[in-house]
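Duplicate of #3305? Posting structure anyway:
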């Protein structure tokens, strides 16, 4: 079995970070809050999709439905990457909020 070697976007597809693609574009003069909110909503939707796909493949593998272990491992890694990405963004946003709240006016 040959594993593809290349950029992360080619190996993993548009999976885990697809919802965050527009985060930097919001600073161009449009409503930054709406851009970030849409990006965060997209990332959370993608997180749900990635984890449900990994769970479905794991169930199919466990029942012997013709799903290979390599497919289960890749789907699980993509779901893990999605969870870590959303967790990191949430942590950074919370940290930024706390910093702003500590500023004196």
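Output from current build:
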């Amino acid at each position: 079995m040959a594993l593809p070697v290349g950029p992360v976007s080619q190996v993993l597809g548009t999976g885990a970070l697809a919802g965050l693609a527009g985060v930097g574009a919001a600073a161009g003069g449009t409503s930054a809050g709406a851009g970030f909110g849409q990006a965060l909503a997209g990332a959370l939707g993608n997180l749900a999709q990635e984890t449900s796909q990994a769970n479905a493949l794991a169930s199919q593998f466990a029942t012997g439905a013709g799903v290979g272990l390599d497919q289960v491992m890749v789907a699980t890694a993509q779901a893990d990457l999605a969870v870590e990405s959303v967790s990191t963004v949430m942590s950074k946003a919370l940290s930024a909020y706390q910093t702003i709240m500590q500023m004196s006016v």
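Confirmed duplicate; merging threads. Helices lie at 8-12, 32-63, 69-102. The chain is about 70% helix and 0% strand.
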